[in-house]
C-alpha cells in the first residue's frame, strides 16, 4: 500500500497517473496547501521541502520499514523501478526517458509554474516577468513538439514516466495562454494520454477528495 500525500496540482497528478496506470493500491492523504498543511511537522517529516507530492511505501521491496520519499520525479522513478512498469529496460529508451523526465523537473514544470504565478497570482502586474515566462513557455512547447514529431512518446516507442511527468503541466495549457493547435504533435500526444482509462481515473480523484 502506498500512502500518497496529495494536492490537485500538476505535480500531484503525476503520481495518481502512475498509480492508476500501474494498478497499485494506494491511499490519498489530502494536503490542503491553502490552509498551510504543508508546513505541519507531520508532513515536514516526510517532505522537508514542504512541497507535495510525497509518498510512504508501506511495503518496500527490501522488506524493511516503510520508506518515505518526496520530489515527484524521484517518486516516479522509484515506483517505476518498484513495479517494473513505465520505464524501459532497454538502454537507449531508458535513458531517453530519464532525460525527458529530468527536463520536465528542471525546466518545463518550473517555467510554466512561474508563467502561471505572474499571470494569475502576483500581487502586481510585472510586464517584464509576464513576457519573459511567456516566451520561455512557448520555447518549451516548441521543444516538446519537435521531440513528438519524431517519436510517438517522449522516451521512444513506449508510454513512460516521462510522458506522465509532462502531461499534467500541458493539461494546464489554457493558463499558459497556449493554443495546442499551434503545436500539432503535442496536441496529438496530449489527446492520446487524456483519453487513456488510467488518466481518466486519476483526474477523477480531484472530485473525490
UniProtKB/TrEMBL annotation:
Extract the PANTHER family matched here.
Answer: DISULFIDE-BOND OXIDOREDUCTASE YFCG, GLUTATHIONE S-TRANSFERASE-RELATED
Q: Which UniProt keywords apply?
A: Oxidoreductase
Pfam families under this entry? Answer: GST_C, GST_N
Report the GO molecular function annotations: disulfide oxidoreductase activity
What EC number(s) are associated with this protein in UniProt? 1.8.4.-
What superkingdom does the record give? Bacteria
Question: Does the record bear Oxidoreductase in its keywords?
Answer: yes
Q: What protein does this entry describe?
A: GSH-dependent disulfide bond oxidoreductase
- Using the record's annotation, list all stretches that form the GST C-terminal domain: 90-209
Q: Does the keyword Lipid metabolism apply?
A: no
Q: Which residues form the GST N-terminal domain?
A: 1-87
| EC class name | oxidoreductase
Report the sequence similarity comment from the record. Belongs to the GST superfamily.
Amino acid at each position: 500500500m502506498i500512502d500518497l500525500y496529495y494536492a490537485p496540482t500538476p505535480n500531484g497528478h503525476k503520481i495518481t497517473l502512475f498509480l492508476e496506470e500501474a494498478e497499485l493500491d494506494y491511499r490519498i492523504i489530502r494536503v490542503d496547501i491553502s490552509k498551510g498543511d504543508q508546513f505541519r511537522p507531520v508532513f515536514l517529516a516526510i517532505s522537508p521541502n514542504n512541497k507535495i507530492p510525497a509518498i510512504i511505501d508501506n511495503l518496500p521491496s527490501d522488506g524493511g520499514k516503510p520508506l518515505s520519499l518526496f520530489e515527484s520525479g524521484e517518486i516516479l522513478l522509484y515506483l517505476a523501478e518498484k513495479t517494473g512498469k513505465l520505464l524501459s529496460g532497454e538502454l537507449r529508451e531508458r535513458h531517453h526517458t530519464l532525460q525527458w523526465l529530468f527536463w520536465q523537473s528542471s525546466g518545463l514544470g518550473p517555467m510554466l509554474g512561474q508563467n502561471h504565478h505572474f499571470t494569475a497570482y502576483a500581487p502586481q502586474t510585472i510586464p517584464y516577468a509576464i513576457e519573459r515566462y511567456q516566451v520561455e513557455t512557448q520555447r518549451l512547447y516548441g521543444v516538446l513538439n519537435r521531440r513528438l514529431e519524431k517519436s510517438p512518446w517522449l522516451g521512444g516507442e513506449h508510454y513512460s514516466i516521462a510522458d506522465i511527468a509532462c502531461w499534467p503541466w500541458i493539461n494546464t495549457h489554457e493558463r499558459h495562454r497556449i493554443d495546442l493547435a499551434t503545436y500539432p504533435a503535442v496536441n496529438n500526444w496530449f489527446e492520446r494520454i487524456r483519453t487513456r482509462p488510467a488518466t481518466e481515473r486519476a483526474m477523477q480523484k480531484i472530485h473525490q477528495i
